[in-house]
Amino acid sequence: MMEATGTDEVEKLKSKFLSAWHNVKYSWVLKTKTFFKRNSPVFLLGKCYHFKYEESSESSPEGSDSGSVDDDFGNVEEFRKDLISKIWLTYREEFPQIDGSSWTTDCGWGCTLRTGQMLLAQGLLLHFLGRDWTWAFDNPVADSFTTDAAKIVGPSFIENSDSNHSNKPLTCQNSGVKSDAERWHRKIISWFADCPQAYFGLHQLVKLGKNAGKVAGDWYGPAVVSHLLRKAIDEASDPELQGLTIYVAQDCTIYNADVYDKQCSSDAEKAVLLFIPVRLGGERTNVDYWEIVKGCLSLDYCVGIIGGKPKQSYYFVGFQDDSLIYMDPHYCQCFVDVSIKDFPLESFHCPSPKKMSFKKMDPSCTFGFYCRTPKEFEKAAEELTKVLKSSKKHNYPLFTFVNGHAQDFDFVSTPVYEQNDLFTEDETKRLKRFSTEEFVLL
Length: 442
Known about the structure:
The protein is an alpha+beta fold. It has helices at about 1-25, 75-85, 110-130, 145-150, 165, 180-190, 200-210, 220-235, 255-265, 290-295, 375-390, 425-435; strands at about 40-45, 45-50, 90-95, 245-250, 255, 270-280, 300-310, 310-320, 325, 335, 355, 365-370, 400.
């Protein structure tokens, strides 16, 4: 008994040391700038933006690089509004201790959980506020937000753009009058709070992960996180969440009848989030899949991709040319108590995205799509099938839609529930298999 206690103390000291080191490591970010080409379209979850200049033949000599900014440049601000309206979930420190551990931070191990949270958060924004909703951040805010914005990525991100536009600080509106949209905005963020009570918070996901052999401090892969989010939705008791369900594809196959069953399992029709864990190649990502990735991110139904590069998980939201656009969870911020009235929102929104070459992407990832009705699911399946067929890999599709139920193909064994009734025996085996196959994340 004394030996076990001693071991526990050593583990606590070890986790405290790692926590302290990671909190310092991820509490600062280099002041790098993210540049976008001004003559290539930028896609952000189904929306296309153009940043181009129009040459003025009267004022600019032939061959001159100078140009006047026409109305198309307004697309830059629209892009900024769209991007900053996405919910950004990052490493946090000093939150309530995770049950059964000594962890009060997820720095160094929780990045895939955070990217999974962002994927679900975008689905919730679509579900409750719609794709055209943007966060009102037009009026000046506290200096801390402007400082944080500069610290993370710097104020400028358009290549050779006019400084009057590119250096304009991102600010939020503080009008004192709360709209229904603002109330939903805050409520959605509160569901991801770093406390045991939050439906989709880190504490709840770690608790569910125990059935996959995971504990706080372990690394989680995209497929495992997809299943944890599905169970978290099923477990959520808020009546507002009863109109949404999650379907996780089984071995890259979506069984249409199973999706319809989830959408029509009650008197009221449910919206569905499709999570599709895939591999884009063997040890390295196959560049032949790039067109599929771009095609998926171009669709209105897409809510993003949980992915990354080896040892780092990112939330991919768009692309330009051969580069992916992503939101990075590897930034340590302080715990925010969402139970406080008018809790600050700034740290939950990313002031600027980052870019990386598709070639650097790790092959393990999860695609996410949102369908409000069975009819929308049918349409999404048609469009995604076209995207898959347009690829060079169309004879070996990344994922497929199949009519019927999974059990019609003897895929799912008879459910045998574990003691806590969270996962079926088949699900538990599959989760443990995923956890050993997926890449290690930091």
